[in-house]
Amino acid sequence: MESQTERDAPVAIVTGAARGVGAATAARLALRGYTVALIDIPAEAPGRVAPVPGPYVAATGSDLDLAAASCVGRGHAWAADVRDDIAVSAVVESVLERFGRIDAVIAAAGAVAGGAPIWETTNDVWRSMIEINLTGVFNIARATIPAMLASPEPRNGRFVAVASAAAHHGLPQLGAYSAAKHGVAGLVKALAAELGSSGISANAVAPGSTDTAMLQASAAIYGLSDPRDFADQARIGRLLDPDEIAATIEWLCTDAPAALTGSVIDVDGGFRP
Ligand SMILES: NC(=O)c1ccc[n+]([C@@H]2O[C@H](COP(=O)([O-])OP(=O)(O)OC[C@H]3O[C@@H](n4cnc5c(N)ncnc54)[C@H](O)[C@@H]3O)[C@@H](O)[C@H]2O)c1
């Protein structure tokens, strides 16, 4: 049962919230006073979720519970695969039933697969990359934007997708991932054009190599023994911490960037592939 304060608080939905950038963002938004709905893949339900080909392994239910518990009493965990539009809509409906509003949506869920040039890429790799990284953002946008538009004016809604340096660059052996992340940039720009003067902005952040489970999988795909080898790709000469990405997302959820919409903001330490 939520308190009176929680019922009046702004509400954020974060996908991919069990760990990494999503978990760091959820924690920051909770500290800022948001009630946070943390969504991640129901990995503990074998058979329900098609695995991603290759070394990438999604988070577990206990990762999700831990991330929710780190949200200073304001975190609420929901399991849904972002590829599954019906499951995503059902979670959004129950968030609305419980908290009555949505103020910020962070689409951070993502996965990585590859390891071959485009012409040798399998259907499984192609489909999983497009469905998780691009359709997943579409699904959460389509499920949440109508509720944000239905909120009383003046509105101050925020939609933030986590793209990638791969939204600007074509990364070798990660063609499907790069295509999906370029798609995320296009989706967010179109969304911003459609939302116009509604008071709801749509932006993306484009992280460089960030020290998470996904980077470990990327290193394995490239045959690197240590993800820190990616540090050379950043002018700052080190990997980014997930909290550094989360800090920019948190800022995008404040009142300050009122003039910012349709932008893809690089948080990449000066990425130079
Ligand atoms: N780590 C990097 O170097 C890096 C660089 C650029 C962009 N990104 C992007 O940052 C975002 C966060 O990734 P991260 O680095 O924190 O990695 P991560 O693997 O720690 O986090 C991704 C989260 O998404 C969840 N997820 C995966 N598939 C899902 C699905 N189908 N439905 C619901 N949840 C799902 C995972 O369980 C995990 O909790 C991703 O969109 C990723 O593409 C990461």
UniProtKB/TrEMBL annotation:
<protein>
    <submittedName>
        <fullName>Unannotated protein</fullName>
    </submittedName>
</protein>
<dbReference type="GO" id="GO:0016491">
    <property type="term" value="F:oxidoreductase activity"/>
</dbReference>
<dbReference type="InterPro" id="IPR002347">
    <property type="entry name" value="SDR_fam"/>
</dbReference>
<feature type="domain" description="Ketoreductase">
    <location>
        <begin position="10"/>
        <end position="208"/>
    </location>
</feature>
<dbReference type="InterPro" id="IPR020904">
    <property type="entry name" value="Sc_DH/Rdtase_CS"/>
</dbReference>
<keyword id="KW-0520">NAD</keyword>
<dbReference type="InterPro" id="IPR036291">
    <property type="entry name" value="NAD(P)-bd_dom_sf"/>
</dbReference>
<dbReference type="InterPro" id="IPR030981">
    <property type="entry name" value="SDR_subfam_2"/>
</dbReference>
<dbReference type="InterPro" id="IPR057326">
    <property type="entry name" value="KR_dom"/>
</dbReference>
<comment type="similarity">
    <text>Belongs to the short-chain dehydrogenases/reductases (SDR) family.</text>
</comment>
<keyword id="KW-0560">Oxidoreductase</keyword>
<dbReference type="Pfam" id="PF13561">
    <property type="entry name" value="adh_short_C2"/>
</dbReference>
